Amino acid sequence: MAAYEVGGCAEPVAVLLTIPGKSVTFVVCNLINILGSMKMTRQSILSIVILILCLGSICFAAPSSGTDQMPGVWGEFGKEYTIGGDSPMNFALKSAEFTVSQVKMGEELFFPTASEKFLVLHFTAHNPQKTEHKTAWSTFKFTAVDANSQSWEYANKIALEKDSGLFSVGLKPAQKVDAYTFIRMPADAIIPKLIVYRGEKNPVVRFDMKEKIKPLAEPYADPADKTGSIALTEVPSQLDTYYPLGFFDMKVIGASYTDQPVIKEKPAAGYRFMVVTVTIKNMNPKDRSVARSTFIPKLVASDGEELKWKQELVHATRPEALPGTVIKPNKELTARYFFAVRTDTPAKTLTIQEGLKGRVYAFDVSGVN
Questions:
Q1: Distance, C-alpha 336 to centroid of its chain
Q2: Angle 116-120-122 from CA coordinates, rounded to 5°
C-alpha cells in the first residue's frame, strides 16, 4: 500500500482509493477544513478532495490485463535477430505449423491428447560470438499468445532438424544449425502472436502469426473453421491409412463378418462376429509393448447401440489371443479385434483411440457385408 500525505493537522482524515492492483491511502485535512467551513456535507467534501487529487495526477491508470509488455521488436519470418544481451545468439524463425501428430525429441516422444494440438516452430540458430557457444533447451524460449491473451509456453525442449537429437551442441563462431520446438495448447486455440526471448530481462522478438501458421491438414481440421486452426477431437478416418494415436500409429486394414468361432468362442444365436484387422506401428524411439488394454475400440450398430467388444487382441492369422507383445521402434504388428453383432442390425461406426484421453478416430463400416 502506498500512502500520500497532504498538509498536516490535528485531525487528519484517511481517504482509501482502491485501484486495480493497488490500494492508495490519502491523508487530507487542510482542504477538508476549508471546505467544511463552507457548510458542505462530509461526503461531498471527500468527493471533491478525490477529484482534485485525480486532477493533480495522483490517481493511477489501471494496468492492462497480464504483465507489462516486454521491450523488444516485431520480427519477420526468415530474418535473423540478435537476442541475449551479454551472451548473444542469432535467431531466425523459418516456419510454423499446427499438428496433432507426434513430435520426437531425443529419446522421447510427445503427442497431444484429444483436446490438444501442437504448434511446431522451425528455426535457425547462429552463433555471432567469437568463441564457441554450447546450446541447450533454454538457449531460446518461446511463448505463444492466443486470441484470448492466454499465454502458452514451449515444451522446455529443443531438437535438431537433422536427426531429432537434443539441441545440445557446441556452435563454433559463425556456425548455424536448424532446430525445432513445440508448444502444447488447446485444440481450438487461435494464435496471433509468438514471443521469442533469451534471458528473462533481455529484449524479445515478437512475431505476428496471423496467416503465418501452416493450418492443420484434412481430416484433422474442423471443417467449420476456415483458418484450419481448430483440431477435431474425433477424426473421420479411412481404411488402410495410418493415423497418429499416441505412442503408436494405427491403420485399419479392413473389417468382415464371420459366424466362425474366434478364440474358441462361437457367436450366440442371432449374432455374428465382426472382425477388424489393424496394423500397429511403434513411433516411440524405444521399444513399446502392446496389450489388449493399449487401445480402446468401440463399435456402434445402425440403431445406436454400442456393441460388446470381446476384450481380446487376436492374432492376425490364427483364432487365438495375442499376448502382450513388444514392438521395436518403427516396426509393425498386425492384429485383430472382434465384436458380437446382431444379424438383423449391422454395425455402422468403428472408433479407436489410444488411452482414455487419446484422439478418437472414426471409421464408417456400414458397407461391410
A1: 32
A2: 175
- From 285, 314, 281, select the one nearest 297 (Cα to Cα): 314
Q: In this predicted model, what pLDDT tens digit does every residue of 253-310 receive, in sequence order? A: 999 999 999 998 999 999 999 999 999 999 999 999 999 999 999 999 999 999 988 8
Secondary structure in 3-state letters for 272-295: EEEEEEEEEEECCCCCEEECCCCE
* Contact (CB, 8 A) for 160 and 167: yes
For residue 208, the Cα-to-chain-centroid distance in whole angstroms is 19
Instruction: Give the CA dihedral 53, 56, 59, 64, nearest 10 degrees.
Output: 160
Which residues have C-beta within 8 Å of that of residue 47, sequence separation ≥ 6?
none
Query: What is the identity of the amino acid at 114?
Result: A
Running DSSP on this structure, what letter comes out for residue 198?
A: S
Which domains occur in the chain, in start order?
2-55 (no CATH), 72-208 (2.60.40.1240), 234-364 (2.60.40.1240)
- Give the burial string for 33-44 (b: 16+ CB within 10 Å, else e): eebeeeeeeeee
> How much is the pTM?
0.80
Q: What are phi and psi of 324, to 5 degrees?
A: -50, 130
Kindly calculate the radius of gyration of the chain based on its CA atoms and give it in whole angstroms. 31
Residue 7's contacts (CB-CB under 8 Å, 6 or more residues apart) are: 28, 29, 30, 31
Element (H, E) at 312: none
Strand-pair partners of 333: 280
Residue-wise pLDDT for 125-154, tens only, equals 999 999 999 999 999 999 999 999 999 999
Q: Residues 307, 347: contact at Cβ < 8 Å?
A: yes
